[in-house]
Amino acid sequence: MRTLLPQDNDVSELPPVLPAFLLQRRTSAITIRPRAELDPSAEDLSSRRCSNDSSSTSGVGQNKSSKNVDLRFSFPTMLGGRFSLGLGGGLYLGGTGEAKARSLWRFFCRRHRVVKDADRKRILIGMSNTGGGHKASAEAIQAAFQERYGNKYEIFIVDLWKEHTPAPFNSMPDTYSFLVKNAFLWRFTYEVTNPKLIHVPYLSAVGSFVSRGVHEALDKYHPDLVVSVHPLMQHIPIRVMTERVKSGAMPPTNFATVVTDFTTCHNTWFCPGATRCFVPTEYCRQLALGNGMAPQQIILHGLPIRPSFSRPLSSRPVLRRSLGMDTGLPAVLLVGGGEGMGALEETVSQLDARVGDKCQVVVICGRNRSLQERLRARPQGPGHVLLHVCGFVDNIHEWMGACDTIITKAGPGTIAEALISGIPILLNGNVPCQEEGNIPYVIDNRVGAFETRPDRIASIIASWLIEGGEEQRAEFTAMGRRAKALGRPKAVYRIVDDLAALADEPCFDFGPAAAALLGQRNGAAATAVAAAV
Protein backbone atom coordinates (compact mmCIF):
# COMPACT_ATOMS: atom_id res chain seq x y z
CA MET A 1 0.00 0.00 0.00
CA ARG A 2 1.23 3.50 -0.76
CA THR A 3 0.06 7.01 -0.02
CA LEU A 4 -0.80 9.51 -2.71
CA LEU A 5 -1.50 13.22 -2.64
CA PRO A 6 -4.40 14.77 -4.59
CA GLN A 7 -3.96 16.28 -7.98
CA ASP A 8 -5.20 19.83 -8.56
CA ASN A 9 -8.58 18.81 -9.98
CA ASP A 10 -9.20 16.39 -7.09
CA VAL A 11 -9.20 19.25 -4.63
CA SER A 12 -12.13 20.92 -6.35
CA GLU A 13 -14.18 17.76 -6.86
CA LEU A 14 -14.78 16.74 -3.26
CA PRO A 15 -16.50 19.02 -0.73
CA PRO A 16 -15.06 19.10 2.80
CA VAL A 17 -18.06 17.35 4.31
CA LEU A 18 -16.38 14.91 6.67
CA PRO A 19 -16.42 16.49 10.16
CA ALA A 20 -12.94 17.87 10.57
CA PHE A 21 -12.74 17.02 14.26
CA LEU A 22 -12.54 13.35 13.18
CA LEU A 23 -9.59 14.05 10.92
CA GLN A 24 -7.36 16.78 12.22
CA ARG A 25 -4.81 16.68 15.01
CA ARG A 26 -2.89 19.93 15.12
CA THR A 27 -0.57 18.91 17.91
CA SER A 28 0.53 15.64 16.28
CA ALA A 29 3.13 15.10 13.63
CA ILE A 30 0.54 14.43 10.93
CA THR A 31 -2.46 16.64 10.33
CA ILE A 32 -5.20 15.28 8.10
CA ARG A 33 -7.62 17.83 6.67
CA PRO A 34 -10.59 17.74 4.28
CA ARG A 35 -9.30 18.11 0.77
CA ALA A 36 -11.01 21.40 -0.03
CA GLU A 37 -9.20 23.02 2.88
CA LEU A 38 -5.82 22.38 1.25
CA ASP A 39 -4.06 25.30 -0.40
CA PRO A 40 -4.46 24.60 -4.12
CA SER A 41 -1.47 26.73 -5.14
CA ALA A 42 0.97 24.99 -7.42
CA GLU A 43 3.97 25.58 -5.19
CA ASP A 44 2.25 24.14 -2.14
CA LEU A 45 0.98 21.08 -3.96
CA SER A 46 4.36 20.56 -5.58
CA SER A 47 6.13 20.71 -2.25
CA ARG A 48 3.66 18.20 -0.81
CA ARG A 49 4.14 15.78 -3.69
CA CYS A 50 7.91 16.02 -3.43
CA SER A 51 7.75 15.39 0.26
CA ASN A 52 5.37 12.49 -0.25
CA ASP A 53 7.54 10.91 -2.94
CA SER A 54 10.46 10.84 -0.55
CA SER A 55 8.44 9.09 2.13
CA SER A 56 5.94 6.94 0.18
CA THR A 57 6.63 3.50 1.55
CA SER A 58 4.20 1.01 3.02
CA GLY A 59 2.01 2.53 5.71
CA VAL A 60 1.09 6.17 6.25
CA GLY A 61 3.20 8.90 4.70
CA GLN A 62 4.33 11.99 6.57
CA ASN A 63 5.05 15.49 5.25
CA LYS A 64 7.86 17.04 7.25
CA SER A 65 8.10 20.22 5.24
CA SER A 66 4.45 21.20 5.53
CA LYS A 67 2.12 21.33 8.49
CA ASN A 68 -0.85 19.65 6.79
CA VAL A 69 -0.96 16.44 4.73
CA ASP A 70 -3.94 14.94 2.92
CA LEU A 71 -3.74 11.14 2.89
CA ARG A 72 -4.92 8.69 0.28
CA PHE A 73 -4.48 4.93 0.49
CA SER A 74 -4.05 3.06 -2.82
CA PHE A 75 -4.51 -0.70 -3.24
CA PRO A 76 -3.56 -2.70 -6.40
CA THR A 77 -6.36 -4.73 -8.00
CA MET A 78 -6.26 -7.99 -9.95
CA LEU A 79 -7.14 -6.09 -13.14
CA GLY A 80 -4.04 -3.94 -13.05
CA GLY A 81 -5.77 -0.82 -11.83
CA ARG A 82 -5.91 0.69 -8.39
CA PHE A 83 -8.57 1.14 -5.72
CA SER A 84 -7.88 4.27 -3.67
CA LEU A 85 -9.57 5.47 -0.50
CA GLY A 86 -8.96 9.00 0.76
CA LEU A 87 -9.48 10.19 4.31
CA GLY A 88 -12.19 12.78 3.83
CA GLY A 89 -15.18 10.77 2.76
CA GLY A 90 -14.28 9.97 -0.86
CA LEU A 91 -13.60 6.91 -3.00
CA TYR A 92 -10.98 7.14 -5.75
CA LEU A 93 -11.23 4.94 -8.81
CA GLY A 94 -8.67 4.89 -11.56
CA GLY A 95 -5.71 3.21 -13.20
CA THR A 96 -2.06 3.59 -12.42
CA GLY A 97 -2.25 7.25 -13.39
CA GLU A 98 -4.36 10.01 -11.97
CA ALA A 99 -7.23 8.83 -9.73
CA LYS A 100 -10.70 10.35 -10.04
CA ALA A 101 -12.55 11.41 -6.93
CA ARG A 102 -16.12 10.38 -6.19
CA SER A 103 -17.75 11.45 -2.95
CA LEU A 104 -19.48 8.80 -0.85
CA TRP A 105 -20.39 11.06 2.06
CA ARG A 106 -23.73 12.01 0.51
CA PHE A 107 -25.04 8.64 1.64
CA PHE A 108 -24.37 9.48 5.27
CA CYS A 109 -25.54 13.06 5.79
CA ARG A 110 -27.69 15.83 4.47
CA ARG A 111 -25.72 18.04 2.11
CA HIS A 112 -28.05 21.04 1.74
CA ARG A 113 -26.47 24.24 2.98
CA VAL A 114 -27.54 27.82 3.28
CA VAL A 115 -25.54 29.97 0.87
CA LYS A 116 -23.63 32.52 2.92
CA ASP A 117 -23.52 36.20 2.08
CA ALA A 118 -19.91 37.23 2.62
CA ASP A 119 -20.94 40.79 3.51
CA ARG A 120 -23.33 39.80 6.32
CA LYS A 121 -22.55 38.20 9.66
CA ARG A 122 -24.60 35.18 10.63
CA ILE A 123 -26.13 34.53 14.02
CA LEU A 124 -27.62 31.14 14.85
CA ILE A 125 -30.15 31.20 17.71
CA GLY A 126 -30.71 27.74 19.15
CA MET A 127 -34.02 27.12 20.85
CA SER A 128 -36.56 24.40 21.50
CA ASN A 129 -40.30 24.95 21.54
CA THR A 130 -40.77 23.68 25.09
CA GLY A 131 -43.23 26.34 26.15
CA GLY A 132 -43.67 29.58 24.26
CA GLY A 133 -41.15 31.71 26.16
CA HIS A 134 -37.99 30.46 24.45
CA LYS A 135 -39.32 31.07 20.96
CA ALA A 136 -40.74 34.46 21.98
CA SER A 137 -37.32 35.54 23.31
CA ALA A 138 -35.59 34.35 20.13
CA GLU A 139 -38.07 36.28 17.99
CA ALA A 140 -37.63 39.38 20.18
CA ILE A 141 -33.86 39.23 19.62
CA GLN A 142 -34.37 38.75 15.89
CA ALA A 143 -36.78 41.71 15.71
CA ALA A 144 -34.40 43.94 17.69
CA PHE A 145 -31.52 43.04 15.36
CA GLN A 146 -33.66 43.97 12.36
CA GLU A 147 -34.75 47.24 13.93
CA ARG A 148 -31.27 48.15 15.17
CA TYR A 149 -29.05 46.99 12.31
CA GLY A 150 -31.31 46.39 9.32
CA ASN A 151 -29.89 43.67 7.06
CA LYS A 152 -26.36 43.76 8.45
CA TYR A 153 -26.89 40.42 10.22
CA GLU A 154 -28.61 37.22 9.11
CA ILE A 155 -30.53 35.70 12.02
CA PHE A 156 -31.54 32.04 11.99
CA ILE A 157 -33.85 30.66 14.70
CA VAL A 158 -33.41 26.90 14.77
CA ASP A 159 -34.96 24.21 16.95
CA LEU A 160 -31.77 22.19 17.22
CA TRP A 161 -33.37 19.34 19.13
CA LYS A 162 -36.31 18.84 16.80
CA GLU A 163 -34.56 19.56 13.49
CA HIS A 164 -31.03 18.28 14.01
CA THR A 165 -31.10 15.33 16.42
CA PRO A 166 -32.18 11.72 15.85
CA ALA A 167 -35.08 9.95 17.53
CA PRO A 168 -35.93 9.86 20.37
CA PHE A 169 -34.15 13.14 21.17
CA ASN A 170 -36.08 15.07 18.49
CA SER A 171 -39.32 14.47 20.42
CA MET A 172 -38.19 16.53 23.41
CA PRO A 173 -40.83 19.30 22.97
CA ASP A 174 -43.62 16.70 23.09
CA THR A 175 -42.03 15.04 26.10
CA TYR A 176 -41.88 18.38 27.90
CA SER A 177 -45.59 19.02 27.31
CA PHE A 178 -46.43 15.62 28.78
CA LEU A 179 -44.19 16.10 31.82
CA VAL A 180 -45.49 19.58 32.63
CA LYS A 181 -49.05 18.28 32.64
CA ASN A 182 -47.95 15.68 35.20
CA ALA A 183 -46.41 17.85 37.90
CA PHE A 184 -44.83 15.02 39.89
CA LEU A 185 -42.97 13.63 36.88
CA TRP A 186 -41.77 17.10 35.86
CA ARG A 187 -40.58 17.96 39.37
CA PHE A 188 -38.77 14.63 39.63
CA THR A 189 -37.04 15.15 36.26
CA TYR A 190 -36.14 18.76 37.08
CA GLU A 191 -34.73 18.07 40.54
CA VAL A 192 -32.82 14.93 39.59
CA THR A 193 -31.02 16.61 36.67
CA ASN A 194 -30.43 19.96 38.38
CA PRO A 195 -27.15 19.11 40.22
CA LYS A 196 -24.03 19.67 38.17
CA LEU A 197 -22.70 16.23 39.11
CA ILE A 198 -25.70 14.73 37.31
CA HIS A 199 -26.43 16.87 34.27
CA VAL A 200 -22.83 17.33 33.08
CA PRO A 201 -22.11 13.59 32.58
CA TYR A 202 -25.69 13.04 31.41
CA LEU A 203 -25.39 15.68 28.67
CA SER A 204 -21.97 14.34 27.78
CA ALA A 205 -23.53 10.92 27.20
CA VAL A 206 -26.40 12.42 25.20
CA GLY A 207 -23.87 14.38 23.18
CA SER A 208 -22.36 11.17 21.84
CA PHE A 209 -25.70 10.51 20.11
CA VAL A 210 -26.68 14.00 18.97
CA SER A 211 -23.38 15.81 18.32
CA ARG A 212 -23.37 14.73 14.68
CA GLY A 213 -26.61 16.65 14.16
CA VAL A 214 -25.10 19.73 15.80
CA HIS A 215 -22.13 19.43 13.43
CA GLU A 216 -24.56 19.32 10.51
CA ALA A 217 -26.36 22.44 11.75
CA LEU A 218 -23.08 24.33 12.08
CA ASP A 219 -22.03 23.15 8.61
CA LYS A 220 -25.36 24.27 7.19
CA TYR A 221 -25.51 27.77 8.67
CA HIS A 222 -21.81 28.69 9.08
CA PRO A 223 -22.58 31.03 12.03
CA ASP A 224 -20.34 33.86 13.18
CA LEU A 225 -22.07 33.65 16.57
CA VAL A 226 -24.15 30.97 18.27
CA VAL A 227 -26.79 32.07 20.79
CA SER A 228 -28.76 29.81 23.11
CA VAL A 229 -32.16 30.73 24.55
CA HIS A 230 -32.82 27.26 26.01
CA PRO A 231 -31.33 25.51 29.08
CA LEU A 232 -30.41 22.38 27.11
CA MET A 233 -28.55 24.27 24.36
CA GLN A 234 -25.31 25.00 26.20
CA HIS A 235 -23.13 22.02 27.04
CA ILE A 236 -23.42 19.96 23.84
CA PRO A 237 -23.11 22.80 21.28
CA ILE A 238 -20.21 24.34 23.22
CA ARG A 239 -18.35 21.03 23.24
CA VAL A 240 -18.94 20.54 19.51
CA MET A 241 -17.84 24.10 18.74
CA THR A 242 -14.69 23.70 20.82
CA GLU A 243 -13.77 20.55 18.90
CA ARG A 244 -14.44 22.25 15.58
CA VAL A 245 -12.40 25.34 16.41
CA LYS A 246 -9.56 23.17 17.69
CA SER A 247 -9.58 21.07 14.52
CA GLY A 248 -9.88 24.01 12.13
CA ALA A 249 -13.37 23.04 10.91
CA MET A 250 -14.66 26.47 11.91
CA PRO A 251 -12.95 29.76 12.78
CA PRO A 252 -12.89 31.00 16.39
CA THR A 253 -16.56 31.64 17.14
CA ASN A 254 -18.29 32.98 20.22
CA PHE A 255 -21.14 31.34 22.10
CA ALA A 256 -23.63 33.36 24.14
CA THR A 257 -26.42 32.24 26.48
CA VAL A 258 -29.49 34.44 26.94
CA VAL A 259 -31.34 33.17 30.01
CA THR A 260 -35.11 33.39 29.48
CA ASP A 261 -36.19 32.24 32.95
CA PHE A 262 -36.76 35.05 35.41
CA THR A 263 -35.60 33.80 38.81
CA THR A 264 -35.52 30.07 39.48
CA CYS A 265 -33.41 28.56 36.72
CA HIS A 266 -32.27 25.04 35.98
CA ASN A 267 -28.51 24.80 36.41
CA THR A 268 -28.05 23.62 32.80
CA TRP A 269 -28.47 27.29 31.82
CA PHE A 270 -25.03 28.07 33.19
CA CYS A 271 -22.06 26.52 31.38
CA PRO A 272 -18.60 27.96 32.09
CA GLY A 273 -17.68 27.15 28.48
CA ALA A 274 -19.88 29.96 27.15
CA THR A 275 -18.33 33.24 26.07
CA ARG A 276 -21.05 35.36 27.71
CA CYS A 277 -24.19 34.69 29.72
CA PHE A 278 -26.96 37.32 29.75
CA VAL A 279 -29.20 37.11 32.81
CA PRO A 280 -32.46 38.97 33.63
CA THR A 281 -32.14 39.36 37.41
CA GLU A 282 -29.58 39.48 40.20
CA TYR A 283 -30.98 36.17 41.43
CA CYS A 284 -29.96 34.53 38.14
CA ARG A 285 -26.57 36.19 38.30
CA GLN A 286 -25.89 34.57 41.66
CA LEU A 287 -26.94 31.19 40.25
CA ALA A 288 -24.48 31.64 37.39
CA LEU A 289 -21.68 32.43 39.81
CA GLY A 290 -22.58 29.38 41.88
CA ASN A 291 -22.27 27.20 38.78
CA GLY A 292 -18.67 28.21 38.16
CA MET A 293 -19.05 31.09 35.74
CA ALA A 294 -16.68 34.04 36.12
CA PRO A 295 -18.13 37.49 36.91
CA GLN A 296 -16.75 38.80 33.60
CA GLN A 297 -18.85 36.25 31.70
CA ILE A 298 -22.16 37.35 33.26
CA ILE A 299 -24.05 40.40 32.02
CA LEU A 300 -27.28 41.62 33.63
CA HIS A 301 -29.53 43.47 31.18
CA GLY A 302 -32.98 42.03 31.77
CA LEU A 303 -35.27 39.71 29.83
CA PRO A 304 -35.40 40.14 26.02
CA ILE A 305 -38.94 41.36 25.39
CA ARG A 306 -40.29 42.20 21.92
CA PRO A 307 -39.24 45.71 20.86
CA SER A 308 -42.85 46.96 20.65
CA PHE A 309 -42.82 47.23 24.47
CA SER A 310 -40.03 49.80 24.32
CA ARG A 311 -41.97 52.23 22.14
CA PRO A 312 -44.24 54.91 23.60
CA LEU A 313 -47.97 54.18 23.47
CA SER A 314 -50.99 56.41 23.11
CA SER A 315 -52.91 57.36 26.23
CA ARG A 316 -55.14 54.72 27.82
CA PRO A 317 -58.44 56.27 26.60
CA VAL A 318 -57.11 56.46 23.04
CA LEU A 319 -55.95 52.83 23.17
CA ARG A 320 -59.31 51.71 24.51
CA ARG A 321 -61.18 53.44 21.74
CA SER A 322 -58.92 51.93 19.09
CA LEU A 323 -59.40 48.44 20.58
CA GLY A 324 -63.18 48.76 20.89
CA MET A 325 -63.20 48.93 24.68
CA ASP A 326 -65.31 51.04 27.02
CA THR A 327 -63.32 54.13 27.99
CA GLY A 328 -65.06 54.57 31.35
CA LEU A 329 -65.02 51.09 32.91
CA PRO A 330 -62.04 49.59 34.79
CA ALA A 331 -60.39 46.90 32.64
CA VAL A 332 -58.85 43.54 33.53
CA LEU A 333 -56.61 41.59 31.15
CA LEU A 334 -56.95 37.81 31.60
CA VAL A 335 -54.22 35.88 29.79
CA GLY A 336 -54.14 32.12 29.26
CA GLY A 337 -50.96 31.74 27.22
CA GLY A 338 -50.63 30.47 23.67
CA GLU A 339 -52.91 27.50 24.33
CA GLY A 340 -55.43 29.37 26.48
CA MET A 341 -54.63 27.21 29.49
CA GLY A 342 -55.75 27.74 33.06
CA ALA A 343 -59.12 28.24 34.75
CA LEU A 344 -60.05 31.12 32.46
CA GLU A 345 -63.71 30.26 32.06
CA GLU A 346 -64.28 29.81 35.80
CA THR A 347 -62.44 33.06 36.52
CA VAL A 348 -64.70 34.92 34.09
CA SER A 349 -67.75 33.41 35.80
CA GLN A 350 -66.56 34.52 39.23
CA LEU A 351 -65.76 38.02 37.99
CA ASP A 352 -69.18 38.23 36.40
CA ALA A 353 -70.83 37.23 39.68
CA ARG A 354 -68.72 39.58 41.81
CA VAL A 355 -68.36 42.82 39.82
CA GLY A 356 -71.09 42.47 37.20
CA ASP A 357 -71.33 45.36 34.74
CA LYS A 358 -68.99 47.58 36.77
CA CYS A 359 -65.94 46.15 35.03
CA GLN A 360 -64.77 44.94 31.62
CA VAL A 361 -62.58 41.90 31.05
CA VAL A 362 -60.30 41.20 28.06
CA VAL A 363 -59.67 37.46 27.68
CA ILE A 364 -56.73 36.31 25.52
CA CYS A 365 -57.53 32.70 24.63
CA GLY A 366 -54.59 32.01 22.31
CA ARG A 367 -55.27 29.10 19.98
CA ASN A 368 -58.06 27.67 22.16
CA ARG A 369 -61.01 28.19 19.80
CA SER A 370 -63.50 26.18 21.82
CA LEU A 371 -62.88 28.45 24.80
CA GLN A 372 -63.44 31.50 22.60
CA GLU A 373 -66.79 30.13 21.43
CA ARG A 374 -67.95 29.32 24.97
CA LEU A 375 -67.00 32.76 26.27
CA ARG A 376 -68.71 34.56 23.38
CA ALA A 377 -71.85 32.57 24.10
CA ARG A 378 -72.06 33.88 27.67
CA PRO A 379 -74.87 36.28 28.63
CA GLN A 380 -74.13 39.92 27.84
CA GLY A 381 -75.73 43.22 28.77
CA PRO A 382 -76.82 44.88 32.04
CA GLY A 383 -75.68 43.06 35.15
CA HIS A 384 -72.99 41.12 33.32
CA VAL A 385 -69.32 41.85 32.92
CA LEU A 386 -68.39 43.37 29.55
CA LEU A 387 -66.30 40.73 27.75
CA HIS A 388 -63.75 41.23 24.97
CA VAL A 389 -62.73 37.77 23.73
CA CYS A 390 -59.58 37.48 21.61
CA GLY A 391 -57.66 34.58 20.15
CA PHE A 392 -53.96 34.80 19.41
CA VAL A 393 -52.90 38.47 19.27
CA ASP A 394 -49.72 40.20 18.12
CA ASN A 395 -50.48 43.54 19.83
CA ILE A 396 -50.42 42.41 23.44
CA HIS A 397 -48.51 45.57 24.33
CA GLU A 398 -51.56 47.64 23.35
CA TRP A 399 -53.94 45.47 25.37
CA MET A 400 -51.67 45.79 28.41
CA GLY A 401 -51.46 49.52 27.94
CA ALA A 402 -55.27 49.74 27.76
CA CYS A 403 -55.96 47.68 30.92
CA ASP A 404 -55.59 48.49 34.62
CA THR A 405 -54.30 45.11 35.77
CA ILE A 406 -53.48 41.63 34.48
CA ILE A 407 -54.33 38.09 35.64
CA THR A 408 -51.78 35.58 34.37
CA LYS A 409 -49.71 32.58 35.28
CA ALA A 410 -46.18 33.21 36.52
CA GLY A 411 -44.48 33.06 33.12
CA PRO A 412 -41.30 35.17 32.96
CA GLY A 413 -42.12 36.88 29.66
CA THR A 414 -45.61 38.01 30.65
CA ILE A 415 -44.35 39.26 34.04
CA ALA A 416 -41.58 41.26 32.35
CA GLU A 417 -44.07 42.72 29.85
CA ALA A 418 -46.49 43.69 32.64
CA LEU A 419 -43.67 45.38 34.57
CA ILE A 420 -42.72 47.42 31.52
CA SER A 421 -46.40 48.35 31.06
CA GLY A 422 -46.62 49.42 34.70
CA ILE A 423 -49.71 47.40 35.65
CA PRO A 424 -50.19 45.39 38.87
CA ILE A 425 -49.99 41.62 38.43
CA LEU A 426 -52.30 38.97 39.86
CA LEU A 427 -50.68 35.55 39.41
CA ASN A 428 -53.08 32.62 39.19
CA GLY A 429 -50.74 29.67 38.64
CA ASN A 430 -47.29 28.53 37.59
CA VAL A 431 -45.34 25.76 35.94
CA PRO A 432 -43.65 23.73 38.69
CA CYS A 433 -40.00 24.39 39.46
CA GLN A 434 -38.78 27.06 37.02
CA GLU A 435 -41.68 29.48 37.56
CA GLU A 436 -42.02 29.04 41.31
CA GLY A 437 -39.45 31.72 42.11
CA ASN A 438 -41.38 34.28 40.05
CA ILE A 439 -44.18 34.32 42.64
CA PRO A 440 -42.11 35.68 45.55
CA TYR A 441 -40.40 38.05 43.10
CA VAL A 442 -43.78 39.69 42.36
CA ILE A 443 -44.96 39.65 45.97
CA ASP A 444 -41.70 40.74 47.63
CA ASN A 445 -41.35 43.66 45.22
CA ARG A 446 -44.96 44.62 46.02
CA VAL A 447 -46.10 44.73 42.42
CA GLY A 448 -48.91 42.17 42.69
CA ALA A 449 -50.43 39.17 44.43
CA PHE A 450 -50.83 35.42 44.02
CA GLU A 451 -54.08 33.46 44.17
CA THR A 452 -55.20 30.28 42.40
CA ARG A 453 -58.90 30.08 43.41
CA PRO A 454 -61.16 31.93 40.94
CA ASP A 455 -63.53 33.21 43.66
CA ARG A 456 -60.63 34.74 45.60
CA ILE A 457 -59.21 36.18 42.36
CA ALA A 458 -62.55 37.94 41.77
CA SER A 459 -62.47 39.31 45.33
CA ILE A 460 -58.96 40.73 44.89
CA ILE A 461 -59.91 42.38 41.58
CA ALA A 462 -63.02 43.88 43.17
CA SER A 463 -60.98 45.31 46.05
CA TRP A 464 -58.34 46.72 43.69
CA LEU A 465 -60.70 48.35 41.18
CA ILE A 466 -64.14 48.85 42.68
CA GLU A 467 -64.79 48.10 46.35
CA GLY A 468 -61.56 49.15 48.01
CA GLY A 469 -61.27 52.32 50.02
CA GLU A 470 -59.06 55.28 49.30
CA GLU A 471 -56.05 53.71 51.01
CA GLN A 472 -56.38 50.49 49.01
CA ARG A 473 -56.70 52.38 45.74
CA ALA A 474 -53.61 54.40 46.60
CA GLU A 475 -51.69 51.16 47.18
CA PHE A 476 -52.95 49.84 43.84
CA THR A 477 -51.62 52.96 42.11
CA ALA A 478 -48.30 52.57 43.95
CA MET A 479 -48.04 48.96 42.74
CA GLY A 480 -48.23 50.21 39.17
CA ARG A 481 -45.46 52.74 39.79
CA ARG A 482 -43.23 50.10 41.40
CA ALA A 483 -43.88 47.74 38.47
CA LYS A 484 -42.89 50.46 36.00
CA ALA A 485 -39.66 51.05 37.93
CA LEU A 486 -38.76 47.34 37.76
CA GLY A 487 -39.41 47.07 34.02
CA ARG A 488 -36.45 46.96 31.62
CA PRO A 489 -37.84 48.02 28.23
CA LYS A 490 -34.38 48.55 26.68
CA ALA A 491 -32.97 45.17 27.77
CA VAL A 492 -33.42 43.54 24.36
CA TYR A 493 -31.49 46.35 22.63
CA ARG A 494 -28.62 46.14 25.10
CA ILE A 495 -28.47 42.37 24.61
CA VAL A 496 -28.53 42.75 20.83
CA ASP A 497 -25.74 45.35 20.88
CA ASP A 498 -23.54 43.01 22.91
CA LEU A 499 -24.38 40.06 20.65
CA ALA A 500 -23.50 42.12 17.57
CA ALA A 501 -20.10 42.88 19.09
CA LEU A 502 -19.55 39.17 19.79
CA ALA A 503 -20.44 38.32 16.20
CA ASP A 504 -18.04 40.92 14.81
CA GLU A 505 -15.05 40.08 16.99
CA PRO A 506 -14.30 36.69 18.60
CA CYS A 507 -13.37 36.83 22.28
CA PHE A 508 -10.49 34.75 23.53
CA ASP A 509 -11.02 35.22 27.25
CA PHE A 510 -13.91 32.74 27.55
CA GLY A 511 -15.87 30.42 25.29
CA PRO A 512 -15.17 27.74 22.66
CA ALA A 513 -12.33 29.69 21.03
CA ALA A 514 -10.54 30.13 24.36
CA ALA A 515 -10.98 26.45 25.22
CA ALA A 516 -9.67 25.38 21.81
CA LEU A 517 -6.63 27.63 22.05
CA LEU A 518 -5.93 26.40 25.57
CA GLY A 519 -6.10 22.83 24.33
CA GLN A 520 -3.67 23.62 21.53
CA ARG A 521 -1.26 25.31 23.91
CA ASN A 522 -1.43 22.39 26.31
CA GLY A 523 -0.88 19.96 23.46
CA ALA A 524 2.09 21.93 22.16
CA ALA A 525 3.57 22.08 25.66
CA ALA A 526 3.15 18.33 26.11
CA THR A 527 4.81 17.71 22.73
CA ALA A 528 7.72 19.95 23.70
CA VAL A 529 8.16 18.16 27.02
CA ALA A 530 8.07 14.78 25.30
CA ALA A 531 10.66 15.93 22.75
CA ALA A 532 12.90 17.22 25.51
CA VAL A 533 12.71 13.92 27.35
Automatic annotation (TrEMBL):
Sequence ranges assigned to domain Glycosyl transferase family 28 C-terminal in this UniProt record: 332-427
Annotated localization: Plastid, Chloroplast membrane
The entry's keywords: Glycosyltransferase, Transferase
Diacylglycerol glucosyltransferase N-terminal domain span: 134-305
EC number: 2.4.1.46
Pfam family, one: Glyco_tran_28_C
InterPro entries: Diacylglyc_glucosyltr_N (IPR009695), Glyco_trans_28_C (IPR007235), Glycosyltransf_28_UgtP (IPR050519)
Protein name per UniProt: monogalactosyldiacylglycerol synthase
Protein species of origin: Volvox africanus
